[in-house]
User: Fold this.
Amino acid sequence: MYEAVLLYPRPLARFPGRLLLLPLLPHRPPLKPLPSEIWSNIFMQVLFGDDQNPQSHTAHYNALRSCSSLMLVCKGFKEVAMPLLYSCVRLRSVNSLEEFTAHLHSADQMWDSIRRIPYSTPGRWVQVLDLAEFLVALDSSAYYAVDALLTRLFPLLPFLTRLTLPPGFPLSRRALTSLTHRNGGPNLRAMCGISYDSVFHSRVETGEDPFVQLLRVCVNLEQLEIIGAGLDNTDLESPFDVELPMVAPLHLPHLQSLTLLSMPCSSLMYALLHSPLPCLQTLMLTPYDDVPFPISLSSHFLETHGQHLRALSFVTPNSWPTHFHPSPTTLLHTCPNLRRLSLEYPLPALTTPSKTPLTSPASSLPTFPLEILSIRRPSSDFWATLEGLLPFLPCLKIVQTRGVRWLRHGMNSRAQEAGIQGEMKAWERRLARRGIRLLDEKWKETQYV
Assistant:
């Protein structure tokens, strides 16, 4: 319906006429309400944007504040903002974890079977659970309380895709069993900060390891970070001719990033060693090349899964006392397709094979696609090794030094040429002749300091 519009073309005439204005275009129909999925995408674009990482802390707190405001606008916005509010949960204390678990458990108890969705809210909205920011150090009683809470919490999160635990927190067998046998195991894509308890390691049967049972369920896992307990001196006293058990291979076709720190050998590592990992491209490992097989599986792991790696990092976690073990010298043999390599102290004397995937038929000189090399501290001993490798590394563009920074320009010339700074200056001049940049631990060059 519309109101009639009358025109008076001759208002001062004795008998003024009136003309009826007719619409030439049809009336615009009222807009249909947008589905909640479209509103959710709109809110996601507004909250995070194209240049922000939804997993970052800044984006999380901005989204938390914005979702809380959107819930006060109207009922429709509340229905859309509530799942976004619970999609990424970051807890910083044991009390907040206890309150969150109690809230989800109470909501699950009130969820009836008449609803079309079998999973209760807000538990089914949680996709990211991050516990890495626990502020207080956990004592023995707090460990037990957190483990008990996680055992109750895992079955209430069927669509959990990312789990991050506080560093140094080992999950018990009951918590791992709760995580394994919950609904939605294939939805888990990333597990970070997982501590491996050495009591789960068995040289007789790997199938009893709860971590192995968990990975058999998480078939869509893309990122895995496991932290072990390091090398025990009693392991070196055991016989080396132990017959290793047979293990059924794991099915992890989507695993791209794997981190195994302070883990020379374990049932989990042995299962991964005998499993095909076709998409594995990034590996972070603690080297144990001086420890023989099967006490250490790190070097054998590289020989098995190193052909398709694009990034390899050797990391020794800080501890007291810190024991550095050597890295294998045959990295370019076992991992010929590396683009990024990070070496640990002591720096190995790398050797080159006779042929590589990039070796052309017309040239007898093997070449490697390595682009970034990261070392702890530059030294004259390793420069002799690197100088011999440079003809085989035509794609090398950056050499980064960890634990060392460039001095500011305000320092005098003697200070900039003394000690480690003088060694870095010498490396910079030598590498600049070959078009290679030398960066410090902040990834900065000397002219930008």
